[in-house]
TrEMBL record:
One of its GO terms (molecular function) is transaminase activity. It comes from the Bacteria. Belongs to the DegT/DnrJ/EryC1 family. Its cofactor is pyridoxal 5'-phosphate. This is DegT/DnrJ/EryC1/StrS family aminotransferase. Keywords: Aminotransferase, Pyridoxal phosphate, Transferase. The lineage of its organism: Bacteria, Bacillati, Actinomycetota, Actinomycetes, Micromonosporales.
Length: 387
């Protein structure tokens, strides 16, 4: 431990933007039509984002939570159905199902990758299960091979929560090319952002068109007589949001390249610190955009973890405690919760009980830093843990 607390030089800011975003906003402004039905930015963004992820069937929406809601609705989720979700995730994964009146069923995750455990998913399927929702945690794909089999055997749909997985690849394929629906977020902290926004990728045009109706109050694109064909709401993305996201998409590959260079170094350095265990990687995720740099400190108390995070922030490292297990959030129990106690769910989610208590994550902008900064992060953490 050094005599003076070490600090890390300032990391790149987030969000990143420049003349490309400015030009896009002016382009959207000057086209004279600022919503998707009259402009061209949303249509163009959908085509570009879909092509980038391996499908021509993309739909842009207002935010990532709405992306999940729209996807779940077109997959038949409603009152009386169940959606299986990882218990370790941001709570939008479960709330999107609960807002539709469905029951969200939390299951355990893998202790190494933090992604949903296919065996736990299989054990949770009932005759009411409509959708299995894996979350690609921090850009690491869930085990899509195993989950595809579980879903096919049970006759239920898969919905990828890909809010962390822009540009990620599973055995050479991006989320839109895997044969299932995938939902993305463009919230301010995400790998590409316009402050808010979302998108859903579909494996076929028929499902995408049903989703279009849902996202536009049930009204077809060419309707002039207010013939609303289905229920829905207004989930339409604005032209300004799409213009910014087109520029952000153009930046994504270069940023992923840097993060993929930095994470192996940082993970190795973190693993050398006694008591620190970095998130594991499934090699079938052959491109990982690294939305978060995650690691565990097994055995740490909640109070001590909070103190470690505070100390990291004070020394220049943007750090956060990990997501709370969704069943340990009050909001989870307001509607659409399973007929179980917290203790019963916790008993079948032993890995989640560990991860949500001892995990720390660093903002992905840390992985846009220099190689020296990766050494600095590890040195700062080692200092803090030795105090």
């Amino acid at each position: 431990m050094s005599g003076q607390p070490s600090t890390v030089p300032e990391f790149p800011e987030w969000p990143q933007f420049g003349d490309e975003e400015r030009a896009g906003l002016i382009r959207a402004l000057e086209q004279g039509q600022w919503w998707r039905m009259g402009g061209s930015e949303v249509d163009t963004f959908e085509a570009e984002f879909g092509a980038y992820h391996g499908t021509p069937h993309a739909l842009a929406v207002t935010n990532g939570t709405h992306a999940l809601e729209v996807a779940l609705e077109v997959l038949g989720v409603k009152a009386g159905t169940e959606v299986i979700v990882p218990a370790f995730t941001f709570i939008s994964s479960s709330l999107a199902a609960q807002r539709l009146g469905a029951v969200a069923v939390p299951v355990d995750v893998d202790l190494d990758t933090y992604c949903v455990d296919p065996a736990a998913v299989a054990a949770a399927i009932t005759d009411r299960t409509r959708v299995i929702m894996p979350v690609h945690m921090a850009g690491q794909f869930a085990d899509m091979d195993a989950l595809d089999k579980v879903a096919a055997d049970a006759g239920v749909a898969l919905l990828q929560d890909a809010a962390h997985a822009h540009g990620a690849q599973w055995q050479g394929n991006r989320a839109g090319a895997l044969g299932s629906v995938a939902a993305f977020s463009f919230q301010n902290g995400k790998l590409m952002t316009a402050g808010e926004g979302g998108a859903v990728l579909f494996p076929d045009e028929e499902t995408r068109e049903r989703a279009f109706l849902v996202h536009s109050c049930g009204r077809p694109r060419t309707d002039r007589d207010y013939l609303h064909r289905t229920t829905g709401s207004n989930y339409r993305m604005s032209e300004f949001t799409a213009a910014v996201l087109r520029a952000q998409l153009a930046r994504l590959d270069g940023q992923i390249e840097v993060r993929e260079q930095r994470w192996p170094l940082l993970a190795r350095l973190l693993a050398e610190i006694p008591g620190v265990v970095p998130q594991g990687m499934d090699p079938r995720t052959d491109r990982n955009p690294h939305y978060m740099a995650m690691f565990r400190i097994p055995g740490i108390t909640l109070e001590r973890r909070r103190a470690v995070v505070d100390a990291l922030i004070a020394r220049g490292v943007p750090a956060f405690v990990a997501f709370r297990a969704i069943y340990r959030c009050e909001g989870f129990w307001e509607a659409g919760a399973p007929d179980e106690t917290i203790e019963a769910i916790a008993a079948r989610c032993p890995n989640v009980e560990q991860i949500h208590s001892d995990c720390v994550w660093l903002h992905h902008r840390t992985l846009l830093g220099t190689e020296q900064q990766m050494h600095d992060i590890a040195a700062v953490l080692a200092d803090i843990l030795a105090e």
